[in-house]
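Before we proceed, please read the two lines closing this message. Tell me what the token row says about the fold.
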Amino acid sequence: MSEMPETKRRFDVGLFDWIDASGAADLSEEYRRRFELVELVEEAGFYAYQVAEHHGTPLSVAPSANTFLSALSQRTSTIRLCPLVYLLPMHDPLRLVEEICMLDHLSGGRLEVGVGRGASPYELGVFGVAVEDSRAVFEEALDVLIQGLTTGKVDFHGKFFSYDDVLVPVRPLQNPYPPLWYPTISPSSVPWLAKEGFHTVYGFGFLSPTVEDTAAQKVAFDAAQAENAGVAGRLNGHVARPKFGLMRQIFVADTDELAMDQGREAFAAFYKSFDHLWAKHNNQRFPRTPDFDAYVAEGLVFCGSPGTVRDVLVGSVEATGADYFAGSFAFGDMPMERIRRSLSLFDAEIRPALDAVAASRAVAG
């Protein structure tokens, strides 16, 4: 059998980013570091750059994904750009329709759109949204978003949003609109997002469910996909094969000991930002001190030498059936030279094993 073409055997890998405070001298330097990072992964052939949205916390020092990705769109040419996610209850959905259309054109049709409702009561509260209303607000906002992107106008009257036949003269470059993502850690969300054809990542780094639970949800995802394939009215019906991905923080160094020492230090700085709002409100939902070693041992953070990380990452992909990996390579106060080395080791010694998984699956059909 002849070797499969390179494009047929690459395993899709993305870069996920909170853009959490790293201790850079100023925000300009923080953004320059991220620009350099995305340029590196684009050169390495990564599928997408995906950026979180957070407010009022050092967990994100780039709270406007549209502003950041607009700048990034002019420095890149091939990598897909994706807010993961737009927190819909915190946006005016009509304005968001307009900005998505603009960004799709600025990026040359490389935009992908993640949507979610938000999990932090403190961030939602800043925008006057009660946690108990967030699902209903999300659902209305999503309806407005899809209507505006699809038809070029919004005529909608709900409990939270109301518009009278508003024209949207800007249209998305991609038809009918950019691909949609809905990440989750909730099994109850899987049938809905699969029915609608969303791309997803199941898990958020160290908060991810177990490999066993993720594998079970991949089975449910595939079943719902198959049952609803070709059904008219799917939100993401223009996407032929929705992705089911894993997201993990990842750090690779030359030895396990060095990786653990350096990764533990950077993760502590990241976790301080992650826990900022919860600690400020004396909410005990998360422990005040992270157990980095336990997260690594449980496969919730990938950290170690190339061989160690390759084994756990490939093992997780094979066990779960995931066909996408979003790696958070920059977190906490990790110096740029360590991030570059981690990416270099990943690309040279780990990614080929992922590509082999993709090639094997392609042969198996």
